[in-house]
Design brief:
The protein is of the alpha+beta class. The chain folds into 2 domains: about 45 residues; about 190 residues, Beta Barrel (Porin). It is about 15% helix and about 45% strand. It contains 3 helices and 9 strands. Strands 1-3-4-5-6-7-8-9 form an 8-stranded antiparallel barrel. Strand 6 and strand 7 form a beta hairpin. The longest helix has 27 residues. The radius of gyration is 37 Å and the shape is rod-shaped. The protein starts with a helix and ends with a strand.
């Protein structure tokens, strides 16, 4: 019995040493390696019935109020008449003077909140010559008139998704329009038409910080209440009539800041 006890003593020592090594290695191992279920729950919390960890989204509009600047360029088509209802025999269409125009615009205003903007805009639109018309000094030849349409307006804009990187907006405004027709022939008389205009716009912005850009569709409805004197060739302009401009373009803005 003494010999057996002496022989088993080294075995007990080896077992104790092995158990100590296992305990040390287990404590030094990563938690995920020691417990695969813990690693899976940390990586995929929904599989373990835990709420998912959501990363807060980056706010595209970091400043909610402040000054905002904008510029735009587009291509506009005219509609309507200058001299009364279109069905009349002697009506002169706006398209008789303008085939189209290329409006260049700028606006400045204040972002009152994430969703609401108030400001003013200016548009300068050189025209492309229209179709020949017997009663018009712009008839015949290739664009024998210099044509220019300008508008000055106030605008209110509503952003429908101000917290999103890509979001639509709608806008409306009132202003005043001037249309100048200057024949290249110095013997022909020039004409200046002006009157109130209503403006409606829709657009989509792609925003990154203070910068935004996107397409815009605008329609303005006006009436030339101030017309040239009754002299040739601008006769028959004493009847009020409505006209419109339909514009497709691109707008960019910076702000608020």
């Amino acid at each position: 019995m003494g010999l057996r006890g002496a022989a088993s003593e080294p075995r007990r020592r080896k077992g104790a040493i092995a158990a100590a090594l296992v305990a040390v290695l287990s404590s030094a191992a990563p938690a995920g390696a020691a417990d695969p279920d813990t690693f899976r729950c940390e990586a995929y919390p929904s599989e373990c019935g835990l709420p998912a960890i959501r990363t807060p989204p980056v706010d595209p509009l970091r400043v909610t109020r402040g000054v905002q600047l904008g510029v735009r360029v587009g291509f506009a088509l005219p509609a309507g008449s200058l001299t009364g209802p279109i069905p009349t025999e002697h009506a002169m269409l706006l398209s008789d003077l303008f085939t189209a125009s290329v409006p260049l615009g700028a606006d400045v205003g204040y972002r009152l909140s994430r969703a609401l903007y108030l400001g003013g805009s200016f548009s300068w639109a050189p025209g492309i010559g229209g179709h020949p018309f017997l009663a018009s000094p712009c008839a015949g030849g290739s664009s024998p008139c210099r044509l220019l349409d300008t508008q000055l307006a106030t605008d209110a804009r509503l952003y429908l998704a101000p917290d999103e990187t890509i979001g639509p907006w709608i806008a409306g405004g009132v202003g005043w329009e001037w249309m100048a027709v200057s024949p290249i022939d110095p013997a022909a008389s020039s004409a200046l038409f002006s009157g109130p205009v209503l403006d409606a716009q829709v657009g989509i912005d792609w925003r990154k910080g203070a910068f935004a850009m996107g397409p815009i569709l605008a329609a303005s409805l006006g009436e030339y209440v101030v017309r040239p004197a009754s002299a040739e060739p601008w006769t028959g302009f004493d009847v009020l009539s409505m006209h419109a401009w339909i514009t497709l373009g691109v707008r960019g803005s910076y702000g608020p800041w």
